[in-house]
Please model this.
Amino acid sequence: MFKVQTLNNISVLGLERLPRERYEVASEMSNPDAVMVRSADMHKIDIPASIKAIGRAGAGTNNIPVAALSKRGVVVFNAPGANSNAVKELVLAGMFLAARNIPQSLDFVKKLEGDDKAMHVAVEDGKKKFVGFELPGRTLGVIGLGAIGVKVANAALELGMTVYGYDPAMTVQNAWQLNSGVRQALSVDDLVSKSQFISVHVPLLDATRGLINADRLKLMPKKGVILNFAREAIVDEKAVIESLDAGGLHAYVCDFPSNALKGHPRVIATPHLGASTGEAEDNCAVMVADQLREFLELGNVRNSVNFPEAVMALLPGKTRLCIVNENVPNMVGQISTTLAKRNLNIADLLNKSRGDLAYTIVDVDSGCAQDVVEELQAIQGVLSVRCIPAR
Model:
């Protein structure tokens, strides 16, 4: 039996992926093997030594102490792309709202007074203030071509927009999904200078903090629109407000309300709705549950934010050792020597590294006693060792 603790309400569809004959799932338990979490702040809780994996039912992991868990050999999973359609649809809605001045016109209608005849006169007289523009022929720049950025770019192209994309770290998998009609920008500045709409879809790192700033806003064509459904600090809020007030930007659409933005006539701020659909919550929970199960039962790692991708088929009758260690020379040699001294024949081996961390999967022909695990654990630089019995 594996024990999985939930720190938030997790979609039933996700929990159903963990069969009850092999998994105990509860919000309160002692010595859990894994945790499934959405928004709970794990920086503020004691994470038991029994934990082998954390599954975040979403993309961001700011609420999880990833660095500290890495030092303990704990893998942290997320669900990249599981909420991508939900975010894409909100970005598209934001473009329409900004282009047609819909929030301002709705506010105008709410304030109408008098009988129907008076209202009709006021509408005919006032509607000229809300003249907007259509999207076909306009240019969208997408910064970050991950699962969400690719969907946004493709959808905008279908709407008849000219689309530029920029992502120097784009994966091959996402490149296959990107419509060939999306044009390549040479840099962020190049993209900004060509785009009437800009949508950012990058993680918050030191390199992306303030990515859209005062200097870049000056490069943008007049009456542009910035869309931020990624992370608040990627866009310099103060610079955006100054540009809106000066008539440079037409609108700022974001998912991160603040006192500075609240009530500004050219700001459309939603209350962090990017992934707030039932479908997205289901998709994230299912994806993370499947990843946790594959890790706990087979030792395989997919979509981890701190571990390398490591997937190896487990042959029938083989015992599997999963070893997390510092990424230093001769670690595989020491592991092999230890197993050879115990007359354990290696049937298959996979070693992957990511930054300072390495992960080794070793399949051996026969069973593995606890003292072998302890001897491997004693190797300097080894962070954790787990034995998965043969089936």
